[in-house]
Design brief:
224 residues; mainly alpha; MFS_trans_sf; 9 helices; 2 strands; c-terminal domain of poly(a) binding protein
Length: 224
């Protein structure tokens, strides 16, 4: 089976678990899957093996804690330590996909604001002036920032595994993280001066450019 088929098998088999065992196992599943430097195939194979082991133990009246112990993160880290590490083709595809989606979202959003400008902000033109040097510099800064934010978000998700976190606290921390992330991109936009040659582009050109990047990202995602 490939990784996608193993994921589907895992989803079906998890229905056999009790509520307590399911919560324990799904925390372990999330913790392992959010390990960004491990082969998906190897990871999904070991997750199905763990699930089969737990289902068998549950039939004997045991709980997930009886099977995997009371230190699940330590156990999960031991499993991850045994899996092969390295950058795979799929990791590169994920990188390309995320870059395309990020630039597509930024371009389409910019194009929509330019389109609505005359109606909302009393702007006289549907076009906007772009400085090529500024655009390149923003991309060189924003893309690493986007991946840093994604990395921190994954670490936060892993930190919440095996913890009983109050919903209000979770929403507060998530909201704070989102505000800081948006603030970081706004800060980059404000501090970078106008650099390089400038071009005047209408809103529909920017939206079409963003749409093309989105389609490229979508094509890459289907190949993963």
């Amino acid at each position: 089976m490939d990784a996608e088929e193993l994921v589907q098998l895992n989803n079906e088999k998890r229905k056999q678990l009790s509520q307590e065992n399911k919560k324990y196992y799904e925390d372990m599943l999330i913790y392992i899957r959010t390990s960004y430097n491990t082969s998906d195939q190897e990871m999904e194979e070991i997750l199905v093996e763990l699930l089969d082991h737990l289902i068998e133990a549950q039939a004997e009246g045991k709980t997930a804690k009886d099977v995997f112990g009371k230190q699940p993160k330590k156990y999960a880290n031991e499993i991850l330590g045994e899996l092969p590490k390295g950058v795979t083709k799929k990791h590169i595809q994920y990188f390309v996909m995320l870059v395309c989606y990020f630039l597509a979202a930024a371009s389409i959003t910019s194009g929509i604001f330019n389109w609505l400008g005359p109606y909302i902000f009393s702007v006289d033109s549907w076009s906007n002036t772009y400085y090529l040097g500024t655009f390149v510099l923003k991309a060189l800064l924003d893309i690493p920032f986007a991946f840093l934010i994604m990395f921190l978000a994954l670490q936060y998700i892993r930190w919440t595994c095996f913890k009983e976190i109050n919903n209000k606290r979770f929403l507060f921390l998530s909201g704070l993280f989102g505000i800081l992330a948006v603030g970081l991109f706004v800060l980059v936009a404000l501090i970078i001066p106008d650099l390089g040659p400038k071009v005047e582009l209408p809103f529909y050109t920017i939206i079409l450019f963003g749409s093309a990047l989105y389609l490229i990202g979508r094509k890459v995602s289907k190949a993963i």
